[in-house]
């Protein structure tokens, strides 16, 4: 048996139940992992509330790091004792779990388990957004919403290292300062300024090449006004609600804009893509291009409080759960 956080019905943080759950032995293509650190992400809250439907009951969480404690009969890439990390595989809120070996990556020396758990989902999201969804080039200008969040702090540093001019948004003076210290050339406090007007001022009226928006409904419409003609709007999250575009001609009126809604499965579903992204991410952390900010840690048993803090915009950087 292991301790795990099980969701028996959708709802608020109160549905997160810390209870005993069997682990079992890994089958073909699987490994058993003892977690040492678990990442917290907005997708965890989307699954808990039913925005992203899951078959109940299920164990929450999508990102973790730990040690392999058993391997399935046909697994040759990993051995007992290997340090591994993963993202995008539901079931992370547990002391120990079974998971597909193909979704695991080795954690290199020099990166702690807490850092690995903090960056796998958020860092690989930043990777495919910056390198694949829109391949950021030196001299380009981008806008990143929620720049002081876990994904934002990783992505803005990485974008700056790529030679981009980075504009970020944040919702408090402390978050503005944090974002500025992590790669943003300009940071807009969206509670005090109209971010679309400010972006036009910063860019001399041109607009940015690309907007990265994980906030969703609250920022989508004005984000379109931040783009240059034929710029790209990348909507990759729904923290404030789901985006809808009832009238596509708005894209024509605002400059023949492009819009995409990328997902990690589409960009990282193949193992070779996952390994390529993980290698780039770990290299960027090890060479100092990305400095990882773990804003808060919670015990796994206190995961409901962690969800409340995340949804209440009380966190900065990455949040890590400790079994």
Question: Can you describe this structure?
Answer:
The chain has helices spanning 42-49, 113-133, 150-161, 173-180, 195-202, 217-224, 249-253, 264-268, 271-286, 303-311, and strands spanning 2-7, 16-21, 30-40, 58-59, 63-71, 83-87, 96-100, 105-106, 141-144, 165-170, 186-189, 208-213, 227-235, 258-260, 294-299, 318-322. Helix 2 (113-133) crosses helix 9 (271-286). The model has no long low-confidence stretch (mean pLDDT 96). The radius of gyration is 20 Å and the shape is globular. With 323 residues, it is an alpha/beta fold. Pfam families: ADH_N, ADH_zinc_N.
The number of helical elements comes to 10
* Derived structural class: alpha/beta
Rg over CA atoms, rounded to whole Å, is 20 Å
CATH homologous superfamily placement of the largest domain: Medium-chain alcohol dehydrogenases, catalytic domain
Number of strands: 16
CATH architecture of the largest domain: Alpha-Beta Complex
What gross morphology would you assign? globular
CATH topology of the largest domain: Quinone Oxidoreductase, Chain A, domain 1
* Low-confidence parts: none
Largest sheet: 7 strands, mixed
The CATH C-level class name of the largest domain: Alpha Beta
Number of domains: 2
- Residues in β-strands, percent: 25-35%
Order of helices and strands: EEEHEEEEEHEHEHEHEHEHEHHEHE
Calculate the terminal CA-CA distance, rounded to whole Å.
14 Å
Amount of helix: 25-40%
Mean pLDDT value: 96
């Amino acid at each position: 048996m292991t301790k795990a956080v099980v969701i028996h019905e959708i709802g608020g943080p109160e549905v997160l139940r810390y209870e005993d759950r069997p682990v079992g032995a890994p089958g073909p293509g699987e490994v058993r992992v003892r977690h040492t650190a678990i990442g917290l992400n907005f997708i965890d809250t989307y699954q808990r509330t039913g925005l992203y439907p899951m078959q109940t009951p299920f164990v929450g969480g999508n990102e973790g790091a730990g040690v392999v404690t058993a391997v399935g009969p046909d697994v040759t890439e990993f051995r007992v004792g290997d340090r591994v990390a993963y993202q995008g595989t539901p079931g992370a809120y547990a002391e120990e779990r079974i998971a597909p070996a193909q979704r695991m990556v080795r954690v290199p020396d020099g990166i702690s388990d807490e850092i690995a758990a903090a960056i796998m989902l958020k860092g690989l999201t930043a990777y495919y957004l910056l390198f694949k969804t829109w391949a950021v080039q030196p001299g380009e200008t981008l806008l990143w919403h929620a720049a002081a969040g876990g994904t934002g702090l990783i992505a803005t540093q990485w974008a700056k290292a790529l030679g981009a001019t980075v504009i970020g948004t944040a919702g408090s003076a402390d978050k503005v300062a944090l974002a500025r210290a992590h790669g943003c050339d300009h940071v807009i406090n969206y509670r005090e300024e109209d971010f679309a007007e400010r972006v036009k001022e910063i860019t001399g009226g041109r607009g940015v090449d690309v907007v990265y928006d994980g906030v969703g409904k609250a920022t989508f419409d004005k984000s379109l006004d931040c783009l240059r003609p034929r710029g790209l709007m990348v909507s990759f999250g729904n923290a404030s609600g789901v985006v809808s575009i009832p009238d596509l001609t708005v894209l024509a009126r605002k400059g023949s804009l492009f819009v995409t809604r990328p997902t990690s499965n589409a960009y990282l579903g193949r193992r070779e893509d996952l390994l390529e992204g993980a290698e780039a991410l770990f290299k960027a952390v090890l060479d100092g291009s990305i400095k990882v900010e773990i804003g808060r840690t919670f015990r796994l048993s206190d995961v409901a409080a962690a969800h409340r803090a995340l949804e209440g915009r009380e966190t900065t950087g990455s949040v890590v759960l400790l079994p």
